[in-house]
Amino acid sequence: MTRATQHISLLFILSSVYLATFLGLIPLPKKVQSEIIPVLPFWAIVSFGAYLLFSLGWGVLTFKDTEKAFDELVLEIDEAKRDLRAKGVDVD
Amino acid sequence: MAPSKADKYSVILPTYNERKNLPVVTWLLNKNFTQHNLSWELIIVDDASPDGTQEVAKQLIGVYGGDKIVLKPRAGKLGLGTAYVHGLQYVTGNFVIIMDADFSHHPKFIAEFVALQKAHDYDIVTGTRYAGDGGVYGWDLKRKLVSRGANLFATVMLQPGVSDLTGSFRLYKKPVLDKVIATTESKGYTFQMEMMVRARALGYTVGEVPISFVDRLYGESKLGGDEIVEYAKGVLGLWVKV
To answer: Which of residues 5-34 of A touch B (CB under 8 A)?
Structure first.
């Protein structure tokens, strides 16, 4: 089963369940039926969007800059070039 | 559980115009493998580079020995996936490492890959720039945003179970790489993504090691609109295929 099939199947199942609740086919407390069910899809979409935005922001904020790795690498490259030149390999 | 005497690590390095980088990368590989007492070889798959990459490769064979450095050139620029398939034919090790030749992937992490693989008998170990101590040098805010966004998009769509899906610094058990590469169809860096997604779909275990990725040592890191579109198409393609 491909990811697409999995996602679409899940969406289908959730939609069916939601439709059942929306049409009143599943007995629910009055308050839930009138105040929560109608806005549930919008709430779900907005929450998912917020989660994505937060993940992205957090990811960018905590992105590590490896300056030390760069400095070490530059030194190592110099060392390598000296050694290689001595051994007769063409390095600039 | 340490690597046994029987374990040999083959690095496949596809090259195109890497005359400047190849000797240093080889030197770094030799330094790190020797330091950790690991049996190794380097298979250079050069796509008829016009800049003399193959001449330098031959000099390196002279320095390190024909048992350590193997040059298997091809007639022209034929693509990354086929370069690995080509290189795999000559691998004599039981583990294969794929990496870039431009210093963005530092051989010093190979020892960590090996240790993690041995500890949990992972089928694949991949480097990650996004988890733990992983990171990048040389990216501005915009680049980081694009990178994180791209990875988030791919993670949501494909749920691959790894933190860095586009990374291409990986250690594979040879039979695993053989199997995964046989089922992979994409080109370019979608290819790296597809390999990981297919591997996970086939049930292979993957471990992650945080790495520092030094991007574009000699210049600007560019990521154009075209590449972003190609990437999005790649992810969606995998979404419906795998």
So the answer is: 7
